[in-house]
Design brief:
By secondary structure, this protein is mainly alpha-helical. The chain folds into two domains: 239 residues, no CATH class; 107 residues, abc type-2 transporter like fold, CATH 3.40.1710.10. Helices cover 68% and strands 6% of the residues. It has 15 helices and four strands. The chain has a four-stranded mixed β-sheet, sandwiched between helices. Strand 1, helix 3 and strand 2 form a beta-alpha-beta unit. Helix 11 crosses helix 12. The longest helix has 31 residues.
């Protein structure tokens, strides 16, 4: 029969290990804040103030009017005006510019004739994401200028105002300003939980083997579930504290809205944390050295959470085989829950399938950890 007294004794022993190793305890608190700051500020996919250079061969009022659309846009920042391709290439090579706009000498004449004119846009394709966005935004600038010219001609002809037969009215629900931080920050919670859980629990049992205290532990009446759950409990508490720190910093520093239930947020985090903790302790059971256990936990836990969960890269854009692999990555379901809770404000009536699959993962890891330790001690 399981004993709460023995269970708490193991948990108390693990707390003593954590408190004695003050560096690990400090990392458990510092890492969430560091990841929030690093990803929140550095991993920004919004296009703003892209350095742009211009070669205006026309030097006409029309070309200056066209360029004023770039200069007045928050997406582009005109740095230099050049008079040849060689200077443009120098700026693109050195990284001083990412976009170059080349206006032909006959720009004004073609505009007055009502003929189409080609404006060359050169983009630094070494950053594919920025290049795609920059090309799209330059196309929008060209479209705005074209509409202004057509409207002006219609006005001069006395035909009234230009009325487009179809006018699109785009609206972005859940993230109206399209801030990438609102999407990134919920995903960081999954990374924080996995890093803390896998990194810290992956050394718990391995440390006992290295220090020679496992033999003393198993010589006592304590049972396998009491050892496993007792060792996990302190890290579970630390993990929830880390989730609270990450959520608070996300709202305080980056104003990421939490539209859903905070209780559901911590419930989801608790389920994912349970699975991650028992995954880490399973690795610790299988590996007899702390260094190897930490390395395996980071590779098998952290990398899939970063790359295959939809946190950084959209799953829909991955190859079909990789998309199939993502179904066994638990962070995929946790991030879906977080984005639903944070941005959409929805609950389990919509997100229940992700919660169920996350719970299934946690249950499998609990059973696996207990089974592996029992086999190890036999």
């Amino acid at each position: 029969m399981l004993s709460a007294r023995r269970f708490m004794a193991v948990a108390r022993k693990e707390w003593i290990h954590i408190i004695r190793d003050w560096r690990s305890l400090l990392l458990a608190v510092v890492i969430p804040a560091a990841l929030i700051l690093l990803f929140g500020y550095a991993l920004n996919m919004d296009l703003r103030n892209v350095p742009t250079v211009v070669w205006d061969q026309s030097r006409s009022p029309e070309s200056r009017e066209f360029l004023s659309l770039f200069d007045g846009s928050p997406y582009f920042s005109i740095q230099q005006y050049h008079t040849g391709y060689s200077r443009i290439q120098e700026d693109l090579d050195s990284g001083r510019a990412m976009v170059a706009v080349v206006i032909p000498s006959d720009f004004a004449r073609m505009i007055h004739r009502g003929e189409p004119v080609d404006v060359q846009v050169i983009v630094d394709g070494s950053d594919a994401n920025t290049a795609h966005l920059a090309v799209a935004y330059t196309g929008s600038v060209g479209m705005i200028y074209s509409r202004q010219i057509v409207a002006r001609r219609i006005g001069l002809m006395g035909a009234g105002e230009l009325v487009e037969p179809v006018e699109m009215q785009p609206r972005a629900w859940y993230n109206p300003d399209l801030k990438s931080q609102n999407v990134i920050l919920p995903g960081i919670l999954a990374v924080v939980v996995m890093v803390i859980a896998a990194m810290m629990t992956s050394v718990t049992v391995a440390r006992e083997w290295e220090m020679g205290t496992m033999e003393q532990l198993i010589s006592t009446p304590v049972r396998v579930p009491e050892i496993v759950f007792g060792k996990v409990l302190p890290y579970f508490v630390l993990g929830l504290v880390d989730v609270g720190i990450a959520a608070a910093l996300g709202e305080w520093l980056f104003h990421v809205p939490l539209r859903g239930s905070p209780a559901l947020l911590f419930l989801s985090a608790s389920i994912f944390l349970t699975g991650a903790l028992f995954f880490g302790i399973t690795v610790s059971i299988l590996m007899k050295t702390q260094v190897l256990a930490t390395q395996i936990a980071m590779i098998a836990g952290f990398l899939p959470t970063m790359l295959l969960s939809g946190f950084v890269f959209a799953i829909e854009n991955m190859p079909s085989l990789i998309q199939c692999i993502t179904y066994i990555v638990p962070a995929r379901y946790f991030i879906a829950l977080l984005r639903g809770i944070y941005l959409k404000g929805i609950g389990l009536e919509v997100l229940w399938i992700n919660a169920v699959l996350l719970g299934l993962y946690a249950a499998i890891m609990v059973v696996l950890a207990n089974r592996k330790l029992r086999l190890k001690l036999e």
